[in-house]
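Troubleshooting: if your tokenizer reports a length mismatch, compare your output against this known-good record of 103 residues.
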Amino acid sequence: MESYFMTDEYVERRRAYVNEIRRSFDRPEVENGTAEEESQPLVPWIFLKIRIVLAVLLMLAFLLLKYNAYEFHGCQAKDVIDIISDISSKVPVPPGKAIRMVS
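Known-good structure output:
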């Protein structure tokens, strides 16, 4: 019966087993058994982060205009809402996908 204590032999067998499993996933390994960092281009993630930050800033600016009754170059929140509703009314809706407006 095998002991449950961590012997050097057990650690080596366990390390070999883990490395074998890692190799089965076709991942490159470093000598100490950890996978190398994959070098993927970060450009798509950077643009995504920039777009998210810009969207949040625009939403905050809109909420600032709306709830504090501020104006930006003569535009109020009501003007922005009117522009967006005019644009969305001109977008064609596919048959069967019409949205009913609730008053």
